[in-house]
Design brief:
Length: 327
């Protein structure tokens, strides 16, 4: 096995099970980091389930003449072909000593044969529980700020949650930007209020708003600024996805819902519903579908499927703007 693979070090095969994407992503990243800590020269292969071919895993895990060690991460493992699932399950019974295999599966019926098979093979399991309760989301916000070496008051954490909503990626991005924009050891509600009442600095949400509203030049300028200041591409994709999901939710809501009823139905604060309703002008179902697909493609690109995340993001912004009705 990989050097030091005892205790908290990577197991030969690990199944990360759960559909809370951000937390699953972090679990997989933690395994890769542990492998690199054990051996800085370890080679990482980042694969997408739908594109893994029969025999590819065998090739990647075959012993090397030079004793090279590797980590193989397979995302969206529910999309693996049946033959590939059989290959992985067989491999899990007798894994390579030089490879750590990480399988990311959201749960559910699709690809269940993989889950059952690697469980029987006694693979390591990391279960990602869905964050559904308000108290859990508050703790998540506090934890994000603590990870950055700062603190946040209870009322500030609640204010941030009220302003951003329930999506963990959006919350993580907001926490990251808040830490970047403030200097106080403990962030208070006043800082959250200032940040969400219109700051000059750019966040992923600004990029998403500009793109959704058809302001291409603004969106591209803000995107480049955000990338230049260190905002992770995956968080920018998340913001774009969140903005489009909000359009879809509000656009498909029953027409008889108003005010608080509508906000409750779509799971957003009222101020955000009002903004999304304004943004819906100029959007049709076909355009929204194209834009959502473009973001899904970008998500794959920034997670290892492409060589240039910045180009993928710029192309996605252009597709979003072009997908608005009449453009």
């Amino acid at each position: 096995m990989l050097p030091g693979m005892a205790g908290t070090d990577p197991a030969p095969v690990t199944l990360v099970l759960g559909d809370e994407e951000l937390l699953a992503e972090r679990a997989a990243s933690g395994i890769v980091a542990a492998a690199r800590a054990a051996d800085p020269s370890v080679e990482t292969h980042d694969l997408v389930g739908s594109k893994v071919t029969t025999g590819e895993l065998t090739q990647l895990t075959s012993p090397s003449l030079f004793g090279d060690r590797s980590v193989v991460v397979i995302r969206s493992a529910q999309d693996l072909a049946k033959d590939v699932i059989n290959e992985i399950v067989a491999y899990a019974k007798q894994p390579s000593d030089d490879t750590a295999l990480v399988l990311m599966h959201p749960g559910g019926v699709k690809g269940k044969a993989l889950v059952d098979g690697v469980k029987k093979a006694r693979a390591a399991m990391i279960t990602i529980n869905k964050v559904t309760k308000a108290g859990e989301r508050l703790e998540f916000v506090k934890g994000e700020i603590k990870r950055a070496g700062r603190g946040i008051s209870g009322d500030a954490a609640q204010a941030l949650l009220d302003a951003v909503g329930n999506d963990l990626r959006e919350l993580a991005a907001a926490c990251s930007q808040l830490v970047f924009d403030t200097e106080d050891k403990t962030i208070g509600a006043a800082a959250v209020a200032r940040y969400h009442k219109g700051r000059a600095e750019v966040t992923g949400f600004n990029v998403a708003d500009s793109a959704i509203e058809g302001r291409l030049a603004d969106a591209l300028e803000q995107l480049r600024w955000a990338l230049g200041t260190g905002v992770a591409p995956v968080l920018l994709v998340s913001a774009l996805a969140g903005g489009l999901r909000s359009l879809a939710k509000v656009g498909s809501a029953p027409r008889n819902l108003r005010g608080g009823q509508l906000a409750s139905h779509v799971g957003m604060p009222p101020w955000k519903v009002d903004r999304v309703k304004r943004q819906l002008n100029g959007w049709g179902p076909e355009g929204l579908s194209r834009a959502i697909q473009a973001v899904a493609d970008a998500d794959e690109q920034v997670k290892g499927g492409g060589a240039d995340p910045a180009y993928a993001l710029e192309h996605t912004v252009q597709v979003i703007v072009a997908s608005r009705t009449g453009r």
